Amino acid sequence: MTVEEARQIQRDFYEISVPSEEDIFLYTEAMEYLIHEEKKPEDMLTLGGWYYGQKDFDLALKYYEMASVYDIDEADECLGYIWYYGRTGQRDFEKAFNYYSRSMARGNLVSTYKLADMYKNGYYVEKDYDKYKEMIEDLYPKIEKTQYLFEPLSEIFTRLARIRREEGKLDEAADLFLRAKDFLAQRISYNAFFGNLNIMKWLIDDLYEILEFDPEFVDFYDLFYVLKTPARVSFYYKDRKQNLESLMEGGACVVHFNDKWYHDRDEFFSKAVIDDKKLTDIYDDLYGFEVIRIEGDY
Fold first, then answer.
1. How far is Cα 110 from Cα 115, in angstroms, rounded to an integer?
2. What CATH number does residue 191 fall under?
3. What does each of the 298 residues of the chain score in pLDDT, given as a tens digit?
4. Are 165 and 199 part of one and the same domain?
5. How far apart are CA 219 and CA 241, in angstroms?
6. Closest to 158 in 3D by CA, of 213, 203, 112
7. Residue 139: CB partners within 8 Å, gap ≥ 6?
8. Which residue of 39, 208, 231, 237 is surrounded by the most CB atoms within 10 Å?
């Protein structure tokens, strides 16, 4: 393998919606080769991010630590996540605080809102909700006009929306949630990372606590709300009608779509496909949503 061949494998992999085991093997081999040959920290971060997305956190930690040697703020941000959530088996808020602090000092906005979360929750530091609010308020003007989908607009907007909800400013909160939803949907179409999908799920749940759900106006990501309870839904893709249902089974709401069963709404959003294309990739081409039946209150 040459460097150019490895780079081509990397580029080709990004074009595959649902990679096979062979695709994944070739990609990881190519990335490991590039790291060995060129020792670029961005490749270490990329491979660490791949393993993190696959929930192989021990390997993610390995490559994040390799990249951190080069004093890159994204590497420290990622290491902060490893220790904040205890991804390798043990939470260490002191390590998380130190990594996030180093990254924030270089201007990293993600590490800044995660440090704010630590003050909100009292993790390693004394709980200080006023400081949390101040940090989130300060982040808003730095992010509000970004058009780069991998900037943390949705993460900051949703935090500010919850602050506005607590202040009783429900219209402003709803607007922030809706703007975050649109931005995040576009990001997920490029990267259906489980963290992005979790943010969308929590966002939708929060949105419909302050807005009345209207089954006449449903889009793809509103299905996070619909599929919480037994439901039947239809929608269209390329003029072909698609049928979807959720039903209670063993105390949980399972999802049935295109002859496949999913344990819950999370697995559906992560894995469901049409024509070998993830629904999250083609969400903007899905239309004509109709909630045929829902049991329970909206």
1. 9
2. 1.25.40.10
3. 899 999 999 999 988 888 899 999 999 999 999 999 999 999 999 999 999 999 999 999 999 999 999 988 899 999 999 999 999 999 999 999 999 999 999 999 999 999 999 999 999 999 999 999 999 999 999 999 999 999 999 999 999 999 999 999 999 999 999 999 999 999 999 989 999 999 999 999 999 999 999 999 999 999 999 999 999 999 999 999 999 999 998 888 999 999 999 999 999 999 999 998 999 999 999 999 999 876 654 3
4. yes
5. 15
6. 203
7. 109, 112, 113, 116, 156
8. 231
**Does residue 215 belong to any structural domain of this protein?**
no
- The HSE-up count of residue 287 (CA atoms within 13 Å, CB side) is 4
- Residue 241 sits in the same domain as residue 197: no
Q: Which domain holds residue 235?
A: 220-294
**Cα–Cα dist 156/151, whole Å:** 10
Using the 3D structure, point to which of 171, 189, 210 is the last residue of a domain.
210
DSSP character string of 38-49: H--HHHHHHHHH
